[in-house]
Design a protein that fits this description.
The chain contains four helices and six strands, in the order H-H-E-H-H-E-E-E-E-E. The radius of gyration is 13 Å and the shape is globular.
Amino acid sequence: MTAAQLKAQAEWVFAFGEPTRLAIVRALATGVKTVTEVAKATKSEMVNVSHHLSVMKAAGVVAAERDGRFMRYSLIGAKATAVAIEITHESGAKVTLSLN
């Protein structure tokens, strides 16, 4: 693995290492959401959620798609079951989070 690939993988892993970001992952596990919907689901301020989504987007954890005047966010490389969500980085690294 090159230094650039290792850096990208480290940034991806880092994107999960904050409580609000973990709450955002859990909120997005049920499907695509706007910042407003994520903020409501996580009981967080919209500006805070927007910041965290920006970090997560830069790391390749979430994707954003414009829907009119809203941005809709979704997880990249995610597979959800009734009890867990598994998110896979392009390098093959995986993070599994319990949804309980």
